[in-house]
UniProtKB/TrEMBL annotation:
Keywords: ATP-binding, Nucleotide-binding, Transport
Superkingdom field: Bacteria
Example GO molecular function: ATP binding
Residue numbers of the full-length protein present here: 3 to 226 of 311
Domain called ABC transporter: residue spans: 4-224
Protein name, entry field: ABC transporter ATP-binding protein
Organism: Sphingomonas caseinilyticus
């Protein structure tokens, strides 16, 4: 039941940094998997490879047992990514931001779908607002809506609560659980142990480009 299988994944950047040194990892359908590790461990590199933003220098990624590269378009369409940084246009409306993102994946325009996503993320009342008018928490919600616009069933969140205050962090956790309840498989990176503990079914610990531990959170937290 691995929806994504990562085998021997390696990444050496052009400057010689070995960000990943052969990572094996199965992502199970319907789970919330947290990748926990300090800054520089290789978490972002790993999810950026699976999401097609960075090229691996070794190993492979399988989606539903098929080599991801052989079927790049369909694999990529199943995956949504919420990067750490804001990638929205300050002068674009919330509606346009989400609707346009759907188009980028070659999905036909579907206003009802965009409406559903905005309502699910409690952004409907803000649909006409420009991005620059929104609070930080709302902007993060739009980033998630944007990642969901093409209806992926696997969602990657890179440090979803970095630099976010406690209240917003709770909001984010609740939202992630809701998305999972709707059937989305979720992988998130974090450097907060409490966040991994609170959110995830399983936790993978990454250190210096290696997966050093992986397990359900009870067993794993006992080891730490
Ligand atoms: P994390 O997300 O765990 O903080 P990253 O994947 O961002 O880790 O980084 C892993 C390592 O790779 C770090 O040493 C980082 O400096 C390096 N790195 C990341 N991106 C690049 C890049 N584009 N070029 C060179 N080195 C990079
Ligand atoms: P580029 O032309 O940028 O070098 P490639 O044609 O090698 O990219 O790869 C196309 C896409 O596939 C890239 O976005 C990259 O992130 C991804 N990719 C490359 N190698 C692998 C791999 N072994 N497993 C999964 N994805 C990969």
């Amino acid at each position: 039941d691995a929806i994504v299988r990562i085998e021997g994944l390696r990444k050496a950047y052009a400057n010689g940094v070995e960000a990943l040194k052969g990572v094996d990892l199965d992502i199970r359908k319907g789970e919330i998997l947290a990748l926990l590790g300090p800054n520089g461990a290789g978490k972002t590199t790993l999810i950026n490879i699976v999401c097609g933003i960075v090229t691996a220098t070794g190993g492979q990624v399988l989606v539903d047992g098929k080599n991801w590269l052989q079927d790049f378009r369909s694999a990529r369409t199943r995956i949504g990514l919420v990067p750490q940084e804001l990638t929205t246009d300050a002068f674009e409306s919330v509606w346009a931001t989400v609707s346009f993102s759907r188009g980028l994946f070659g999905k036909p325009r579907d206003d009802a779908k965009v409406e559903e996503i905005l309502k699910r993320l409690t952004l409907w009342d803000k649909r006409k607002s420009e991005m620059r008018e929104l609070s930080g928490g709302m902007k993060r919600r739009v980033m998630i809506a944007k990642a969901l616009a093409h209806e992926p069933d696997i969602l990657f969140l890179d440090e979803p609560t970095a630099g976010v205050d406690v209240e917003l962090r709770r909001d984010m956790w609740e939202l992630v659980r809701k998305l999972r309840a709707d059937g989305t498989t979720i992988i998130l990176t974090t450097h907060y142990i409490e966040e991994a503990e609170e959110m995830a079914d399983r936790v993978g610990v990454i250190r210096k480009g290696e997966l050093v531990a992986l397990g359900d959170k009870k067993g794993l937290m006992a080891q730490l």
